Amino acid sequence: MLTLTDGAVQVIRTVTANPELPPETGIRIESGLDGSDALRLSVAPAPEAGDQIVEEEGAKVYLEPTVAEMLDDKTLDAQVDPQGDVAFTIAEGTGGAPT
Fold this sequence. Notes:
Blueprint: E1 3-4, H1 6-15, E2 26-31, E3 39-44, E4 52-56, E5 59-63, H2 65-70, E6 75-80, E7 86-91
Parallel strand pairs: 1-6, 2-5
Antiparallel strand pairs: 2-3, 4-5, 6-7
């Protein structure tokens, strides 16, 4: 299962902490457009049917089923640069490179 770094937990909690958002709001990761290897990340009000849910210390990540399989042994990290822009990165696990 995808693991979250402390940095990712903090950023996700900050991004989803808006009181106007539903309590189940989290970050959803889905496959890219047109079969692209790129992943799309967005703020989602709730998981979609079939999503794998990763929750750690109040930070919720919803993974599309094919993405959940692809990221099974990976770690999600997030950092905020001096301009306040957020960058999410996925670190390889011990399972080797994805095919």
